[in-house]
Amino acid sequence: MTSKLNSTMPDIDLPTTERAPPLRGAALAAMTVAVAVSTFMEVLDLTIVNVSVPHIAGSLGVSAQEGTWAISSYSLASAVMQPLTGWIAKQFGEVRTFCISVLLFVAMSMLCGMATSMPMLVVARLLQGAGSGPMVALSMALLLNNYPDAKKGIALAVWAMTVVIAPIFGPILGGWLTDNYSWPWIFYINVPVGLLAAIVTWNLLRERESKIVRTPIDKVGLFLLILGVGCLQFMLDNGNDKDWFSSPMILTLGIVAVVALVFFVAWELTDRHPVVDLHLFSKRNFAVGVTALSLGMVAFFGINVVFPLWLQITLGYTATWAGLATAPVGILAFLISPIIGKNIQRLELRWVTTFAFIVFGITSIWFASFPTDASFGQLVVPRFLMGIGIACFFVPLNQVIVSGLQPDEIASASGLANFFRTIAASFSTAVTVTIWQHRGDYHHAMLAEHLNQASPATQGYLDHLYAFGATTQRAWALIEGIVSRESLTLAVNDVFLLCAALFFVMIPIVWIAKPPFGNAGGAVGH
What is the pLDDT of residue 16? Predict the structure, then answer.
């Protein structure tokens, strides 16, 4: 009976000692910087390539549309690997997995910079995304498992700041490096930073490795996950360019994604050794927190996508100035997040998150009032104030997500939460850009209906242009440009109002969570 029981048990490597006490002093500070920099670097690479696509495409002799594969391949591989984080970390240990991920990310960054063809760059970006997938989730686990209980809120604040602020500064840094050096440097900068972070993390945490539990590989679940998430991410990345479901390819990808993911969920809930622990959703606070975080990311990321696009396409901003108009959102987030983290045990997190949604909603309505002649100062003020909402949104919700979890569950929980955050961001990008374009066409048609020579306003404006020497053809071309600008501005205002509505609708969802929310990873340090 004993031998039969042993034959069915997973191979478990137990550490020889109990979990080490939390780090303190200089060691804690060094670990925090190393892990935070690694996280910042990984998230930064989601957006740093965006403004460099034309340069990359021209250098490698491909079209700009083909150049976007440098973005899609990275996000696709990263999305597939994120939900696998918990399983991988249990097989090899959280510290070892994190350091290997950082080193793989560094090596592939070097290969990306050395790429001499588009296929070579795409393969390198795929491997870079696969290597980086576990980094963000494990960074949270390493911080929480090595911080004192009283300072776990600070750990969450540090983590939230890096995850939120990095995508905002990505386009600015990417544009500056590309303009002043060359596009390979957007990848080369990862090498020294990543190597230093991996060395510091390994030296500080190698004796504090998590428990290793080796289980059989869930081959069916792994296949369904890669197929379903891969098709879903590819569909979201390319749907807008292919006119969505009017394209047979996008329609096929959508069907395959739905079927594969439905079977994946059913399989994982019944398999003895699932590759993704979906049972975490049976925990009320985890389910509510992930839902609120994902829906919040749809609205928040939607604004972050269409705002700089509107500035560049409609108002004529350069990529650098669009980035500068976008970046102030990180200032208050950076300053307030540590305060929220330090006092997280004293705050009613549902009220804090509710306040965040109200701030987001009000600033979104403010954005919706911008005319086409809005000044830089007018644009920056609400963007600056939105940073208050960021601090009150990401830090409390991540506390809700991990509240009551055991230390060995944090990596899986963080991996799942980051997966849904990534998919929400991809979904938001695809949907908000599509809505903006369609609403722009609608407003253009509505405005054009009133443009005819029988209209006194139209005739008066034409006479004004004729007085300055414009020909009839030139005058109507100028009017068409004005109509296009106004229609795109009205359309972006529609997107902002839609995001505002989504923020307000989410407030009741937060209140489904049930306190107390306790320390993240409640058993740590006990």
Answer: 39
Number of structural domains the chain divides into: 3
Checking if the pLDDT of 48 tops 50, the result is yes
Assigned domain for 8 exists:
no
Q: Give the residue among 236, 273, 270, 271 at the shortest CA–CA distance from 253.
A: 236
Q: What token pair was written down for 452?
A: 């005819």
* Residue 165: inside a domain: yes
252 three-state secondary structure: helix
Greater confidence (514 vs 355) lies with: 355
pTM: 0.77
Question: Is 261 found in the same domain as 211?
Answer: no
Indicate the SS3 state at residue 28.
helix
97-126 residue pLDDT tens: 999 999 999 999 999 989 888 889 888 888
Q: What is the mean pLDDT of residues 411-417?
A: 82
Burial class of residue 59, CB neighbours in 10 A (0-12, 13-18, 19+): middle
> Are residues 260 and 297 located together in one domain of the fold?
no
Q: Are residues 269 and 283 in the same domain?
A: no
Contacts of 326 (CB under 8 A, 6+ apart): 168, 171, 304, 307, 308, 311, 383
DSSP bridge partners of 214: 11
Burial 225-257 (b: 16+ CB within 10 A, else e): bbbbbbbbbbbbbbbbeeeeeebeebeebbebb
pLDDT category of residue 8 using cuts at 50, 70 and 90: very low
What range does the domain containing 422 cover? 279-526
Q: Tell me which of 82-86, 294-298, 471-475 is least confident.
A: 471-475
510: nearest Cα among 300, 351, 344:
351
Cα–Cα distance, 278 to 265 (Å, whole number):
8
pLDDT score recorded for residue 108 = 92
Is residue 160 located within the same domain as residue 241? Answer: no
Contact 301, 320 (CB under 8 A): no
My answer on whether 201 and 238 are in the same domain is: no
Measured between alpha carbons, how far is 244 from 224 in angstroms, rounded to an integer? 23
Torsion of Cα atoms, 178 then 181 then 187 then 192, to 10° = -140
Q: What are the Cα distances from residue 392, in Å, to 161, 174, 338, 430?
A: 11, 28, 11, 26
